[in-house]
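Hi L.,

You mentioned the student needs an example of a multi-chain input paired with its predicted structure. This one should do, with 857 residues in total across all chains.
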Amino acid sequence: MNVIKRTLLGMLQPVVAVLIGLIAGAVAILLIGDSVVDTYREMWNGAFGSFYFLTNTLTRATPIILTGLGVALAFRAGFFNMGATGQMVLGGLAAAITGLYMPGPGWLVMIMALLVGMVVGGLWSLFAGYMDARFGVNLLISTLLLNYIASLFAGYMVSFPLKDRTGSAAMSQTPMLEADVWLPKLFSGMSLHAGFILAVLAAVAIYIFIHHSVAGYEIRMLGNNPFFAAYGGVKRGRMMVVAMLTSGALAGLAGAGEVLGTQHRYLDGALTSADYGWSGIMATLLASSHPIGTAVAGILLAALQTGAMGVERNTNVPLEVASVIQATLTLFVSARFGYLFLKRRKERKNNGSAV
Amino acid sequence: MTVLLEMQGITKKYGDFTANHDIHFDVRKGEIHALVGENGAGKTTMMRMLYGMEQPTAGRILVNGKEVHFHDPSQAIRHGIGMVHQHFMLFPSFTLAENIVIGGEPKKGAFFDRQSAADKVRELGERYGMPIDPWKKAGDCPLGIQQRTEILKVLYQGADVIILDEPTGVLTPGEVKELLAAIKGLAAQGKSFILITHKLHEVMEAADRITVLRDGVITGQMAANDTDEEQISRLMVGRELVQMSRAAREPGEKVLDIQAIKLAGGKGSKPLLDDVSLSVRRGEIVGIAGISGNGQSELLQVISGLRQPDRGTVELNGADVTGAPVRQIREQGLAHIPEDRYLWGASRDATVLDNGLMGHQQRFRKRGLIDRSSLRKVMNEWVQRFAIKTGSLDTQAQFLSGGNLQKLIAAREFAQQQPFLIAAEPTRGVDVGAMELIHGELLERCRGGDGILLVSSELTEILKLSDRILVMYEGRIAGELTAEQATEEQISLLMAGGKRQS
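Structure written out for the whole complex:
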């Protein structure tokens, strides 16, 4: 009973936030002078209107859910990991390299590519954690800046050493992966691939881990009150390794899933221009780091994006309406995030002050 | 005497819960009216209604005979009601004068007139017998002066009735005496006080009248001359309190042995701990007295592994645990009721259940997952045994009152079943009934052969429970007394650093 209630509450928040976003969007549409009902009908159709569009939305949701889950776990432990994008990019690149150069049967290469993507994403994230623990480099800043390093490094790799020189197109991308290492499609002719199953399983697994395991308990207490955790014998260093490694690994899996399931190669900018990483962070913040809620929020955000494409195809309302809605959401989310961040800082400062 | 303030038939309901029922209460001019009761008895609710922070469900509030409706504290202040909160609300980087005149600053043209503010404040302090230095920064002042500042602030705002919420919780014995003398002086000048407190000897010393509250209902209202501490506690608790005493015990071998602990302070400041050695034997309660901030917190942090000493050794239950991780020390035999329940002892955002699990993670681990059903069973026993008032085990800890949270923490640590227990301020802010229970449990554990290190700023608590008493002053052990020798005066003298000067 209680579990169900808590899960429902976890889902309620993102839904309410999206509703408020939709109201803001409605105002924008009215200002343009178009019909709100028609526009939103097109948006709904574009996101969920047919089986094709539904699977399209779920495909787009897959990396958002995975990065969102990773960020949720780190947030729960009190670590502000803003590096989902970079961790995803490196995970994707590593998966592409594995898929291209590892010998062996296709299914094995595919699994290895996913694992390597997770490990690389995890290590990249852990590196920021290490700098925090060892040198006191603020995690929020280091993870943010490491995004640039990762993206530009991956861009260089596919522009020079790993560049596909077989085709005539001068794109910055790796060669195409062999078809037998691709993640299988769930339905023929649809874009949805097995990565979505992984994302759903990950959401359930992270939920059980955070809410029902002893290690998850320690992570939550560390995030709630680090002094209480220290007093109770929770080892911050070890928990940081677990949280940052897992968090980065999920982002890495998101990147690997995109490469193996959708692009079938590493294409420069494909992961960053779609803003999966930031959408993931947003999904987490909308759902207050509840894993199931994060998955729901991930699907809603993806629906907003695919739905907006439908709007642009079929009406005079520009794609930017979706940006208005997203911006409203971002506003809510950043206010919330800023509040959380300041609250933590304040609590740390209040330590022992008598006044 | 004229009645300044009156509550008539006040009832306050939160949903189905009745916090106050049919309260009749009044304050006369120049009187100190004490309001006593256990945690959750409804004292705070009553005062919040007087101060405009809550509105009564039924009943009337009268000021100078006229009915009033306060919707926020500023209205209460305008009617001459002021409140000094338990936690001081001063800006540490402002001077005392600035803190006092805030909201009613004297101006010269468009500018804040600092000099005239300081003059006014100095004059105010002298008039009411509470002198302060108006130019000092609030953050640099001892807590006694900060409190004086709070009271002066309320007086500056023109209050005739001043509500003092647990005013002596953070003060040293000397400061308490001064405070009580000061409010008696103010009462003689015609100011009235509502004194909310747990400490019955303060009530007996200062109050003219006493109102006792239990479960939201007034159970007694009498003049201080007509009653005694025993009668008041009976009215508060609703039953007879058992007198406890230390039975003569034969201490066993050492369970904690600390040798020459040193902990450096910041650059250029005195060491936080200077050559501290002490031991606790099985079946013994060792009390550490001292004004807070003289190294007690640091000492406990060193023992429990939260802080590394620069020199010295800590031996627990026969093993050297100097600088060991917290978990290892706990497993070696430590249970720990921490001094600050919100900072160290609990997570406000987590549920009661999660707060109770801390330190018991290994016991309730089943294939890596938390065995919540067993935990629930055990914790329901704690809730019953310690009469912890909570909605359910899934309530967030922040909704528990301070005393109930303290009981939860105590229950959790008593359940650790370790031979050595640190009890730091174990009854801070808890009511008489809970205090009795926690003290009883400490003595029980001690009889069972556990060693207990008791740190408390309450001298009565130290004197009541300890077999030996150590006094800390500026990071050192300033003196050791046996329970038989110790008197309140002797300890107070050592706490103030008296011995070293003589």
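You could point out the following to them. Chain A touches chain B through 25 residues (CB under 8 Å). The longest helix of chain A spans residues 2-32.

Best wishes,
N.
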